[in-house]
Write a structure and sequence with these properties.
It is built from six helices and no strands. By secondary structure, the chain is an all-alpha fold.
Length: about 140
């Protein structure tokens, strides 16, 4: 699976950086929500998977709330730094089945899919968006760049 992640990251990294801060924020909250929802759904049948999912969802939500982008509440983390943290969150997500000892369980596939999706989102995000905005622009973000 690690080879697949590297291949996807390489392919997505060569694509145009189409995701701006507003869209990235919405996608981050969707990813966090899916982790939290699956944590609740996993709770009765696989407590370890549930805890891993809740940890990933909580970490993703916390970073999103602290980032200086639309949807961020405290503006503690710069948007470019958020991109670097996303890379660590992807690694944590991919490693979670091993960390909570569920590698052979069907729930492990959920973490692999989430890591893959977050890899694509991160690779296609323009983390230099704010530095390249044209002067005189009113600051409105219209979805994709």
């Amino acid at each position: 699976m690690a080879l697949l992640h590297k291949g996807v990251a390489l392919a997505a990294g060569r694509m145009p950086k189409m995701i701006n801060p507003r869209v990235h924020s919405a996608l981050d909250y969707a990813v966090a929500g899916s982790f939290l929802l699956m944590g609740a759904l996993f709770w009765k049948r696989n407590r370890r998977a549930a805890i891993g999912s809740l940890l990933c969802g909580g970490a993703t939500a916390a970073v999103s709330l602290l980032t200086d982008y639309p949807g961020g509440a405290r503006k503690v983390i710069s948007y470019p730094m958020h991109g670097q943290i996303d890379t660590s969150l992807i690694a944590m997500t991919a490693a979670m089945p091993r960390l909570v000892n569920i590698e052979d369980d069907r729930e492990a596939k959920f973490f692999a899919r989430q890591a893959l999706a977050k890899t694509v989102i991160t690779a296609m995000t323009d983390f230099d968006y704010d530095q390249r905005k044209k002067p005189g622009r009113d600051g409105a973000d219209e979805g994709f760049v």
